[in-house]
Amino acid sequence: MYLSPFKLERYFARYEFNTEYLLCSSDCEAMSVADLLAFEAGAAEKFQNVWLGYTESLGSPTLRKEIAGMYSTTQPEDILVFSGAGEAIYLFMMAALQAGDHIIVHSPHYQSLSEVAKGIGCNVGLWRAHEENGWALDVNELPALMQPSTKAIIINTPHNPTGYLMSRADFDALNRFAQENNLLLFSDEVYRESEFDPAHRLPAAVDYGTHAISLGVTSKTYGLAGLRIGWTATKNHDLYNKMASLKDYTTICNSAPSEFLAEVALRHREKLAERNLGIIKHNLAVIDDLFTRHSSLFTWVRPQAGSMGFPKLLKGDVEEFCDDLVKKAGVLLLPGTMYEDTGNHFRLGLGRKSLPQAVEKLRGYL
Ligand SMILES: Cc1ncc(COP(=O)(O)O)c(C=O)c1O
User: Fold this and answer.
1) Residue identifier of the C-alpha nearest atom 2 of ligand 1
2) Pocket test for ligand 1, best of 160, 258, 347 (most atoms within 8 A of CB)
3) Which of 173, 225, 189, 222 is nearest to 89 (CA)?
4) Which ligand 1 atom is the nearest neighbour of the CA of 219?
5) In the predicted model, what is the mean pLDDT of residues 312-336?
């Protein structure tokens, strides 16, 4: 199995820890262990006694119970905990797909959502988002994307990198389409609960039935990427068992301190999400002002959820722009070419407290 280099991760590897202003991060502002433990009386003392042996491979029973409570219809036995969402994507594809299978993938997308399938020998059809329509997907395009060998649809909403949030009617129709055509629906929901208007939050795919797998993680909405705790929620127990069995060949089980901290975090996830949405909304006002002042240089579709947007550079080449910006001003933007985008877009991160200072630097450069 050959996996092409993960372009976005290789780009970050070059800059993430030596650039002063990260203006393209996909996650929300993190916090220290001490700050997280302060959310719950007695948690700091309990953390001292966490046992550092191997943990239960499926995830600790109490953590799985906490995660199951995030959905309407799931039980702990529907939840499988991984070391990050990345491991979950990898093992879902290894468990569900075989060489020659075809999948339909939301495009543009986080690279592993198609790359692992390609590595297995699958064919990938792109379900393209329409920028002119708020980066929306058109459910009516699905029948034309179908092939006799189609096994799964891979969707990501709220979306990295555009911040697109599918409408309830379209999500219902998508789930119906997957069920009627006997397809798996892998729903990357790592930005769920970061909707700017909570009234627009979608039900989780897992709550639609056994065709669906919902993907979650502590990294994004809750700002705790360093925990490396992700999970799948699915009532498809055949698939669940296959993923669980494959995990014996990757991480076997999760980090005990991380599982403890993730459980604390998820018990207080509303407060964490509220804190991070506060940062995002404050930053959005700064960005709105920047783009109003530089309307001849950029256009963008304002996101509806999550901690990212995907503006378009109207003059010059976006790779050269990002390269020159980081060299001259120490501000990191991510060219859309890392997503195979050809429209001169770049990824803008909205979840970090340092955004106003980074934008000040960007303004000076412009
Ligand atoms: C849409 C999406 N899915 C999955 C992941 C993987 O998450 P993690 O790095 O926490 O494993 C990311 C990370 O950027 C992402 O943006």
Assistant:
1) 110
2) 160
3) 189
4) 10
5) 96
Task: Check pLDDT > 90 for residue 62.
Answer: yes
Domain 53-268 fold: Aspartate Aminotransferase; domain 2 (3.40.640)
Mutate to test the pocket of ligand 1, among 219, 228, 232 (most ligand atoms within 8 A of CB): 219
Nearest-10 Cα torsion for 161, 169, 223, 14: -10
- What is the model's pTM? 0.97
Its CATH class, for the domain covering 7-32+270-365, is alpha beta
- What is the chain's mean pLDDT, rounded? 97
Domain ranges of the chain: 7-32+270-365, 53-268
Using the atom order of ligand 1, give the atom closest to the CA of residue 86. 11
Please give the average per-residue pLDDT across 84-113, as a whole number.
Answer: 98
Residue 31 predicted with pLDDT over 90: yes
Query: Does the beta carbon of 191 sit less than 6 angstroms from any atom of ligand 1?
Result: no
State the pLDDT at residue 22. Answer: 94
For residues 204-219, one letter each, b for 16 or more C-beta atoms within 10 angstroms of the residue's C-beta and e for the rest, the string is bbbbbbebbbbbbbbb
Report the nearest atom of ligand 1 relative to the CA of 27: 14
Percentage of the chain lying above the pLDDT 70 cut: 100
Residue 16 confidence (pLDDT): 83
**Can you give the pLDDT at residue 149?**
98
Q: What is the DSSP string of 74-108?
A: --GGGEEEESHHHHHHHHHHHHH--TT-EEEEEES
Does the beta carbon of 349 sit less than 6 angstroms from any atom of ligand 1? no
